[in-house]
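Contributing new records

If you add data, match the layout below exactly. Sequence lines come first and carry their own label; structure lines follow with theirs. Keep one chain per record. Anything else will be rejected by the validation script.
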Amino acid sequence: MADVLRNSIYGIVSAFHDEMLTSTKAGVLEKDWVTKSKSLFKTYELLVQKLHHFLDFRAS
C-alpha cells in the first residue's frame, strides 16, 4: 500500500514538477500545494518536508 501511495505521489510531482519548482522559487510551495487543514496522516510540516524530498528526488 505504501508503495502505491509513494508511486502515486511521485506521478503527481512528475506531472506538476515545473509548477512546483516555480512555487518553490517564489517561496509559496507550501501555500500552493499543501493545505493547512488537519491531515489524517502527518503534520503539516512533515508533509511539506516530504514534498520537498519528492521534488529533490525528481530533480536528480
